[in-house]
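Please discuss these two lines.
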Amino acid sequence: MQSVNRLIACVAASAALFSAVACGSDSGNMGTKTDVSGTGGTASGGAPADGGTSFPGAALSTFMTPDSALKIELRTSPAQPIHVGPNNEGMLTITDATSGNPVDGLSISVATWMPVMRHKCSEAPVKVEAMGSGMYLLTPLVASMPGACELQLSLTETLPDGGPSAKIAVTTPTFMVAQ
Protein backbone atom coordinates (compact mmCIF):
# COMPACT_ATOMS: atom_id res chain seq x y z
CA MET A 1 0.00 0.00 0.00
CA GLN A 2 2.87 2.33 0.77
CA SER A 3 4.22 1.78 -2.76
CA VAL A 4 0.85 2.65 -4.29
CA ASN A 5 0.64 5.85 -2.21
CA ARG A 6 4.16 6.75 -3.27
CA LEU A 7 3.28 6.14 -6.94
CA ILE A 8 0.14 8.28 -6.64
CA ALA A 9 2.16 11.09 -5.05
CA CYS A 10 4.74 10.92 -7.85
CA VAL A 11 2.07 10.97 -10.56
CA ALA A 12 0.31 13.91 -8.90
CA ALA A 13 3.57 15.84 -8.59
CA SER A 14 4.44 15.11 -12.21
CA ALA A 15 1.05 16.28 -13.43
CA ALA A 16 1.46 19.53 -11.52
CA LEU A 17 4.80 20.32 -13.14
CA PHE A 18 3.27 21.58 -16.42
CA SER A 19 6.38 21.17 -18.50
CA ALA A 20 8.45 18.81 -20.62
CA VAL A 21 11.15 16.32 -19.74
CA ALA A 22 14.69 15.85 -20.85
CA CYS A 23 17.49 13.86 -19.45
CA GLY A 24 21.19 13.56 -19.01
CA SER A 25 24.00 11.62 -17.42
CA ASP A 26 27.70 12.06 -17.37
CA SER A 27 28.75 13.49 -14.06
CA GLY A 28 32.28 13.79 -15.43
CA ASN A 29 31.30 16.74 -17.63
CA MET A 30 31.31 19.41 -14.95
CA GLY A 31 33.67 21.79 -16.75
CA THR A 32 33.78 25.52 -17.32
CA LYS A 33 30.41 27.24 -17.30
CA THR A 34 29.05 28.91 -20.43
CA ASP A 35 27.02 32.09 -20.03
CA VAL A 36 23.88 32.22 -22.20
CA SER A 37 22.61 35.52 -20.88
CA GLY A 38 23.55 37.30 -24.06
CA THR A 39 26.53 39.14 -22.59
CA GLY A 40 29.08 36.63 -23.84
CA GLY A 41 30.96 36.46 -20.53
CA THR A 42 31.08 33.95 -17.73
CA ALA A 43 31.22 34.40 -14.00
CA SER A 44 33.08 32.33 -11.45
CA GLY A 45 31.19 29.70 -9.48
CA GLY A 46 29.12 28.68 -12.51
CA ALA A 47 26.58 31.51 -12.29
CA PRO A 48 26.70 34.47 -14.68
CA ALA A 49 27.03 37.81 -12.89
CA ASP A 50 23.86 39.14 -14.56
CA GLY A 51 21.66 36.20 -13.47
CA GLY A 52 21.65 34.32 -16.81
CA THR A 53 21.71 30.54 -17.01
CA SER A 54 25.07 28.78 -16.88
CA PHE A 55 26.01 25.46 -18.48
CA PRO A 56 29.07 23.20 -18.27
CA GLY A 57 31.81 23.85 -20.82
CA ALA A 58 31.88 20.16 -21.77
CA ALA A 59 28.86 18.90 -23.71
CA LEU A 60 26.69 16.10 -22.33
CA SER A 61 26.54 14.75 -25.88
CA THR A 62 27.69 15.75 -29.35
CA PHE A 63 25.96 14.44 -32.46
CA MET A 64 25.38 15.23 -36.13
CA THR A 65 22.35 15.73 -38.35
CA PRO A 66 21.71 12.70 -40.63
CA ASP A 67 23.38 14.46 -43.56
CA SER A 68 26.40 15.39 -41.36
CA ALA A 69 25.93 19.08 -42.27
CA LEU A 70 25.39 20.29 -38.69
CA LYS A 71 27.18 19.48 -35.45
CA ILE A 72 24.97 19.72 -32.35
CA GLU A 73 26.11 19.83 -28.74
CA LEU A 74 23.73 19.36 -25.81
CA ARG A 75 24.43 20.77 -22.35
CA THR A 76 22.17 20.72 -19.30
CA SER A 77 21.86 22.94 -16.25
CA PRO A 78 21.98 23.39 -13.32
CA ALA A 79 24.10 20.24 -13.42
CA GLN A 80 24.66 17.03 -15.27
CA PRO A 81 23.08 14.56 -14.91
CA ILE A 82 19.55 15.95 -15.00
CA HIS A 83 17.57 14.97 -11.93
CA VAL A 84 13.87 14.34 -11.45
CA GLY A 85 12.22 17.71 -10.88
CA PRO A 86 11.29 20.98 -12.59
CA ASN A 87 14.53 22.97 -12.41
CA ASN A 88 16.48 21.70 -15.43
CA GLU A 89 17.32 23.57 -18.64
CA GLY A 90 19.10 22.57 -21.81
CA MET A 91 21.30 24.32 -24.34
CA LEU A 92 21.85 23.25 -27.93
CA THR A 93 24.90 24.70 -29.65
CA ILE A 94 24.64 24.21 -33.42
CA THR A 95 27.52 24.77 -35.82
CA ASP A 96 28.21 24.14 -39.49
CA ALA A 97 30.13 20.85 -39.55
CA THR A 98 32.51 22.03 -42.28
CA SER A 99 33.31 25.59 -41.23
CA GLY A 100 32.59 25.43 -37.51
CA ASN A 101 30.56 28.64 -37.80
CA PRO A 102 27.51 28.99 -35.52
CA VAL A 103 24.15 28.39 -37.19
CA ASP A 104 21.45 30.90 -36.27
CA GLY A 105 17.95 31.34 -37.65
CA LEU A 106 16.73 27.78 -37.08
CA SER A 107 13.24 26.90 -35.93
CA ILE A 108 13.53 23.96 -33.56
CA SER A 109 10.83 21.81 -32.03
CA VAL A 110 11.64 19.34 -29.27
CA ALA A 111 9.84 16.15 -28.26
CA THR A 112 11.00 14.09 -25.32
CA TRP A 113 10.95 10.30 -25.44
CA MET A 114 11.73 7.41 -23.14
CA PRO A 115 12.75 4.64 -25.58
CA VAL A 116 12.72 1.82 -23.02
CA MET A 117 9.27 2.81 -21.73
CA ARG A 118 8.03 3.64 -25.25
CA HIS A 119 6.21 6.82 -24.22
CA LYS A 120 6.68 10.57 -24.04
CA CYS A 121 8.48 11.97 -21.03
CA SER A 122 5.84 14.70 -20.75
CA GLU A 123 2.88 16.07 -22.68
CA ALA A 124 3.88 19.70 -22.11
CA PRO A 125 6.02 21.41 -24.78
CA VAL A 126 9.65 22.46 -24.41
CA LYS A 127 10.14 26.15 -25.22
CA VAL A 128 13.07 26.85 -27.56
CA GLU A 129 14.62 30.33 -27.48
CA ALA A 130 17.33 31.42 -29.92
CA MET A 131 20.17 33.01 -27.96
CA GLY A 132 22.48 33.89 -30.88
CA SER A 133 25.92 32.48 -31.73
CA GLY A 134 24.31 29.14 -32.64
CA MET A 135 22.87 28.63 -29.13
CA TYR A 136 19.27 27.61 -28.42
CA LEU A 137 17.90 27.52 -24.85
CA LEU A 138 15.48 24.69 -24.00
CA THR A 139 13.17 25.41 -21.06
CA PRO A 140 12.01 23.88 -18.96
CA LEU A 141 13.41 20.37 -19.02
CA VAL A 142 11.48 18.69 -16.25
CA ALA A 143 12.23 15.09 -15.47
CA SER A 144 9.15 13.32 -14.16
CA MET A 145 10.85 9.96 -13.56
CA PRO A 146 14.34 8.47 -13.67
CA GLY A 147 15.47 6.42 -16.65
CA ALA A 148 16.80 6.49 -20.20
CA CYS A 149 15.63 9.50 -22.21
CA GLU A 150 16.31 11.29 -25.49
CA LEU A 151 15.33 14.47 -27.26
CA GLN A 152 13.81 14.20 -30.71
CA LEU A 153 14.55 17.42 -32.59
CA SER A 154 12.99 18.83 -35.73
CA LEU A 155 15.03 21.60 -37.37
CA THR A 156 13.96 23.97 -40.12
CA GLU A 157 15.57 27.12 -41.43
CA THR A 158 14.16 30.08 -43.31
CA LEU A 159 15.13 29.98 -46.98
CA PRO A 160 16.16 33.13 -48.90
CA ASP A 161 12.63 33.34 -50.36
CA GLY A 162 11.21 33.44 -46.81
CA GLY A 163 9.77 29.94 -46.84
CA PRO A 164 10.82 27.10 -44.56
CA SER A 165 13.32 24.45 -45.58
CA ALA A 166 12.54 20.76 -45.35
CA LYS A 167 12.49 19.51 -41.75
CA ILE A 168 15.56 17.72 -40.52
CA ALA A 169 14.83 15.12 -37.86
CA VAL A 170 17.60 14.23 -35.42
CA THR A 171 17.59 12.40 -32.11
CA THR A 172 20.09 12.94 -29.32
CA PRO A 173 22.03 9.99 -27.99
CA THR A 174 20.12 8.34 -25.14
CA PHE A 175 21.11 9.48 -21.65
CA MET A 176 19.88 8.92 -18.11
CA VAL A 177 17.79 10.95 -15.66
CA ALA A 178 18.86 10.50 -12.05
CA GLN A 179 16.52 10.36 -9.07
